[in-house]
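Attaching the record inline, Q. Sequence:
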Amino acid sequence: MSEPVHTLHRGTRPLLVSLPHVGTQIPADQRHRYTERALQAEDTDWFLDRLYAYAADLGASLIVPRHSRYLVDLNRPRENTPMYAGRNNTELCPTRHFTGEPLYREGQAPDEAEIRRRVALYWQPYHDALREELARLHAGHGHAVLFDSHSIKSELPWLFDGRLPHMNLGTVDGTSCAPALRDALAAEFAAQQAYSHVVDGRFKGGYITRQYGQPQQGVHAVQLEMCWRAYMDESPPYRWHETRAAEVTPLLRRLVQAMLAWQP
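Structure, as predicted:
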């Protein structure tokens, strides 16, 4: 392939920020499979690379994929087991929008061979980079923190009931990081009143948080699922909202700083 499937900024402090759903590209040789609506990649975690750009300036590592989750979902296990049992889930290679409608034209959904090809070309390199960067940070600092950051529309009845809080922190019910780190981040949310929040609610952490959060081995992982309404317009064409983004950035910066400052 002519261009890398992700970019990795290697920082100097023990924090890796992962943005697995910020990519928007669908390769030219796959575009014919998708509906016109799907080619707009509406279920992207829009603008998070812009929103967290300061993390690199603070010394954190930052990994950003190029391609859309509609190609392959980097936050799903390669075995394609559901993240949330008993609920509607999107797959390793999603076949539906978050509203339930099909992504692919009739008969164009990927078969097992195509799924394996996408895993090898796009999924595996991202996870190899995650693993290697966490190992580097752990070796250099004695521990590593992985911040897996996401965003989503506030209301999606196909996936969940009602309206999500602005901020949804996931630690896999306290198993993916040390209790003290979970408490430190929860305290940042509790100290403000502008944004509703929950810890280990509907979004407890996806595959990345569950796979790499090994606190007993010195690697601590947390996921943040933030609602679009905190920083952007939730209706097409999904524009960046300058005022909202400026208002939420100080809270996000405090979260990143808390993860940088935390010591096991």
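The chain has one domain: 6-261. The chain has six helices and seven strands.

More tomorrow.
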